[in-house]
Design goal:
Blueprint: E1 13-18, H1 22-27, H2 33-52, E2 56-65, H3 73-87, H4 90-95, E3 99-103, H5 116-129, E4 136-143, H6 145-158, H7 165-169, E5 182-185, E6 204-207, H8 217-229
Parallel strand pairs: 1-2, 1-5, 2-4, 3-4, 5-6
The structure holds 3-methylbut-3-enyl trihydrogen diphosphate (2 copies) and magnesium ion.
The site of one 3-methylbut-3-enyl trihydrogen diphosphate has 10 residues, from helix 1.
């Protein structure tokens, strides 16, 4: 672990998940892809509960990327509805003392594509869980890491900054998000994604063939053991 990148006190790790493979999970079961997304959202709820019981202070998940808008309209619509459902799980989040946050293209930026009904559910969930003191769950929706870094640089320039590292870090979508300790990518894709590229410098990576809807709490432990071993 690089001590300069990882300034968190020991414990309370930051785990990031690229929730990939919902479509293939459904296809292998002769189900429509939308069923895979539904199963993925349900598994996220159970991974969130498991994470809150472990030494995880921050869980950040990739829900929908800036590139995913080109998918068929019906699939996009289904995924939007699932995000409304996810951000609607306020009672469950409160029961587990979890604060929910969101990262993505800011709603007031010209590039933003998040529809109003999802914006509303995001704002409401953030407000209704803001008083919690436990794990921070951050959902990346309409998120792209390259956009985030470009946007931070753009804002720094507009502020007349001479662009040092901190000038970028503090203008990322969520300046309070700590460095990632371990990144999990499901579904056998052994490659980098457009996800938290700035925040994940130095992170351990757990690649697994398991599709997101099947990821278990024990596999979360396997990923966490990478942090503890480093
Ligand atoms: C991840 O599963 C969910 C989103 C990208 C929204 P996919 O839909 O990418 O599933 P595969 O990769 O096609 O199996
Ligand atoms: C990554 O999955 C994005 C999310 C999990 C939301 P994709 O399936 O969109 O990623 P690529 O395009 O295969 O890298
Ligand atoms: Mg995929």
């Amino acid at each position: 672990m690089n001590p300069e990148l990882h300034t968190l006190p020991t414990g309370r790790h930051h785990v990031a998940c690229i929730m990939d493979g919902n479509g293939r999970w459904a296809e292998t079961r002769d189900l429509p892809r939308t069923a895979g997304h539904t199963a993925g959202e349900e598994n996220l709820a159970s991974i969130v509960r498991a994470a809150a019981q472990r030494d995880i202070g921050w869980l950040t998940v990739f829900g929908f990327s800036t590139e995913n808008w080109v998918r068929p309209r019906a699939e996009v619509r289904h995924i939007l509805g699932l995000h409304e459902r996810l951000f609607g799980r306020v009672e469950e989040l409160n029961d587990n003392n979890i604060r929910i946050r969101w990262i993505g293209r800011p709603f007031d930026s010209p590039e933003s594509r998040t529809p109003r009904f999802v914006q509303r559910s995001i704002r409401k969930a953030i407000a209704d869980t803001a008083q919690n003191t436990g794990m921070v769950l951050t959902v990346a929706f309409d998120y792209g890491s390259r956009f985030e870094m470009m946007n931070a640089a753009r804002n720094a320039r507009a502020d007349g900054s001479d662009l040092n590292m901190n000038d970028i870090t503090k203008r990322l979508h969520d300046a309070d998000l700590p460095p990632v300790d371990v990144m999990i990518r499901t579904s056998g894709e052994i490659r980098v994604s457009n996800f938290l590229l700035w925040q994940a410098a130095g992170a351990a990576i757990h690649f697994t063939d398991t599709a997101w809807p099947d990821l278990s709490a024990s596999e979360l432990d396997t990923a966490l053991s990478l942090v503890e071993a480093s």
